[in-house]
Amino acid sequence: MSVNSRKSRKRARADIDSEDESSAAMAAKEDLKHDDQVWFDDGNVVLVAESIAFCIHRGLLSLHSEVFRGMFTMPPPENEETVAGCPVVRVSDAAQEMRYMLWALYNGRAFRNPRAQVPFKVVAALLRLAHKYQITYLREEALARIKTVYVDDSLDFMTEECPSHPLLTYEEEDAFDVVQLAHLTDTPSLLPAALYLCCETEPFWEPTNIIKSFLSKRDEEPYNLLSQEDVFRCLAARPQLVEARLAVFSYIFSDAGGMQCRASGLCRGALAFIKNRFFEAQSEVPEWPVRIDCLYPRADDVMSDTCYSGQYSFCSSCQTYFKGRDKDIRERIWSDLPSYFGLDIPGWVKH
To answer: Cα 19 to chain center, whole Å?
Structure first.
């Protein structure tokens, strides 16, 4: 075989490869759908996430993102893919999350309004992508909003059986996402409250099956959001949290020394009634799942149940006294919460 023949075959193979690549690019291009919300006719670059195309402005991305700024300084490839006459940049992100990020860059007023409640899934997506693309201001704003709920106001946030916050919506599976975001952004102060809320969810109700569940469902949410280390942290913490829940009740109503009321006989009778009910409950088969909500206020509910019994009640002075003890013990548990999960959080707020 002559050298020329070999060269001819190589050229033919290269031509075939080039045609295959072009065909694949054409097929991919035909599957693209222009985004309804983020498509600017005067844009000069097209981002493609999944099969959704976003026509936007290169200058805007370069202004806010160090990653895109560096990407746009690189020379374009010889066979650059284009859509609507604009170069295409394909990314591996979910289209919906990319839409959230781009919309925040173009029109972030709703998100940046400190009084507006924002869906958690939006804030989580913004934090993930802002971290990935090094959009500093967006990363800090998203992280600050999550920290307000899971760190600064967390003790108040968890005083209701269905937690809610004016800045952020809440679903119980959000806590798993927060754990992942804490590791991604190296923000360990998010972990104690998020892991605590994970411990309250159904996957952790049955400790005997939990490891099997997490190992067999590693590709399913929420199981794929926790590392093995975090799973073991929660398993180790649950018995301590159950004990802490019992300690809350015991602490609130164990000390009658501060009771100063004129109807002391009635109030002390009510206290004795509460203690008897507590000890009776301990001798019964525990409810399933065993509850761990040691940060939830107890005094109001217990005193209300006592009044509803029709036999006993507390005067306003004693109610205030026991509510104060309730707040005190919950703040102590909050201060110690990182230790339940084997965490040492620098600068953790001590009450």
So the answer is: 46
| CA 72 to mean position of chain CA atoms | 32
> Any residues with CB less than 8 A from the CB of 299 and at least 6 apart, and which?
252, 319, 322, 323, 325, 326
pLDDT per position as a tens digit, 323-348: 888 989 999 999 999 999 999 998 88
Q: Which residues contact 45 (CB under 8 A, 6 or more apart)?
A: 55, 56, 57, 58, 61, 72, 86, 87, 88, 89
- Locate the DSSP E strands across the chain: 33-39, 45-49, 52-56, 82-83, 86-91
Amino acid at 37: Q
Per-residue pLDDT at 350: 61
CA distance linking residue 284 with residue 279, whole number of Å: 9
User: Is 260 within 8 Å of 317 (Cβ atoms)?
Assistant: yes
Burial 150-181 (b: 16+ CB within 10 A, else e): bbebbbebbeeeebebebbebeebbbbbbbbb
181-237 pLDDT tens trace: 999 999 999 999 999 999 888 778 776 666 666 666 666 666 677 888 998 899 899
Q: To the nearest whole number, what is the mean pLDDT of the chain? A: 81
What is the distance between the alpha carbons of residues 59 and 44, in angstroms, rounded to a whole number? 9
